[in-house]
Structure formats: C-alpha cells, structure tokens
Amino acid sequence: MMQRLGSILLTFALCSTLLSSFGYAFGPSTEENRYVKTFSDFKIYVESHRLRVRELGITHYKLHPDRYKDLPQKTVEKYLALHDRSKQEESNARALYAYYGRNQKFMPEQLRESFVKVINHINTYDSKVAEKFVSENPLTGSQIERLFEIEKIADLVDRGMDPVAREDFEEGGRYTMKLGSEFLLHEFSKGAARHLEKIYSELTKGQSFVERKNALASMCRGMF
Question: Are the C-beta atoms of 99 and 28 separated by less than 8 Å?
C-alpha cells in the first residue's frame, strides 16, 4: 500500500513539473540535449533505468535456474526494486542532476571534487540500503554475492544500451561508453550480458525514456 502511494505521489509530482512551462529547468545547461532538458526529465530517466534493471535482472535470473536455484524469486524481485533507491530522494537527485551530461574525466579539479562527494554520498546511501536488506533477509554469503551479481549485470547492460545514459556520460562524444558485456570481467557475466544485450529491445519495450515520458504526459493530461 505504501509503495503504491509513493508511486502515485511521484507520478503527481512529475505531472506537475512536466506540464509546467519550466519543468524545474535548473542545473546544467541541457537545452541542447536530445533527451534530458529539465529536472523532471532527469527523474523520468532515473525511474526508467530502475524499472529496466528490474526487468533485465529478473530475466537474467530466470535464464539461469541452476546458478540461482537457492535464491527465491521474490527475494530477487524485492532487492532489484531497491536499485538506485538513493536517486529517488529529491535532494540526491537534484545534486546529481547538476552534473548531467558531464564526465568527470574532463571536469576541472574543483568541479570533479564536488562531483565525487555527491557520488560518494549516493553510493554510501545505496550501500546502507543493501545492508539493511541483507540484515532483514536470511541469506548466505554465496547468496548475497549472486544477488549482487544479478543487479550488476542488469545495471551495466542497461547503462551500455540506453541512449540517454550515453548522453549523460559521453559528454558530447568526448568519451565512449563500453557495453556491459565489454566492461564485465568474469566469463559467465560477460556471456550473460551479451545475451541480454541481444534481446534488450524486446525486454525493455515500453520502458525507454521517450516511451515513458510520452506515456506519463498522456496520463498527466487526464489528471488535470
């Protein structure tokens, strides 16, 4: 019930900004961007990624029953639903949005230091979320490692395939992102990621930034 209420409130908040003439247009210079031009766009980008990670993670889990046979699906689903929980906090999302489209490799030292502080804070937040989940769910060390493995594969596959992530991290072509299958080190993870990349379009149909923004805009028009 509380999760559904939170989803409704998030939708209402996004509608309020999406249909306004400004849409929280503070932060970086994003008018030239193809995708994220406002803070409300950024929030859709974050939430779309979270939903796709869940879909990719569950699909990966189901494709490898022998590897994950001792991990209940409900446990996996509950954990994946917490992915990037930090970015659902308004203050964290605003802080991160200020650096949208910038890659720390090309930032001046002072700006990079500020960016690293934001990233460290967000990573600490998500680590605490994961620690709380593990403390509330009886899992062995091996189960925890494989639970984290599922999330990592899904996260990196989505980052590498998402055009909005490329807009966010590549800084206008100055940097080229690797696919998840190229970034991962272990052969099992690399092979699993390659398979997800092949079926990515089918798995994530209706969950892209553009599709979700259009759907949200249509829903919002019916609310007001």
Answer: yes
Which long-range CB contacts under 8 A does 121-124 form with residues at least 24 apart?
121/92, 121/95, 122/86, 122/87, 122/92, 122/95, 122/96, 123/86
User: Could you tell me the residue range of the domain that residue 12 belongs to?
Assistant: 2-223
Split into its structural domains, the chain has a count of: 1
| 130-181 pLDDT per residue, tens | 999 999 999 999 999 999 999 999 999 999 999 999 999 988 778 889 999 9
CB neighbour class for 5 (10 Å; exposed up to 12, middle 13-18, buried from 19): exposed
105-126 CB burial, b ≥16 within 10 A, e <16: eebeeeebeebeeeeeebeebb
Cα–Cα distances in angstroms (integers) from residue 81 to residues 56, 86, 164, in the given order = 12, 12, 21
Say what the pTM is: 0.85
C-alpha to C-alpha distance for 27 and 20, rounded to whole angstroms:
17
Tokens coding 109 = 């030292």
28: alpha, beta or left? (left if phi > 0; alpha if psi -120 to 50): beta
Of 180, 204, 183, 203, which Cα lies nearest the Cα of 193? 180
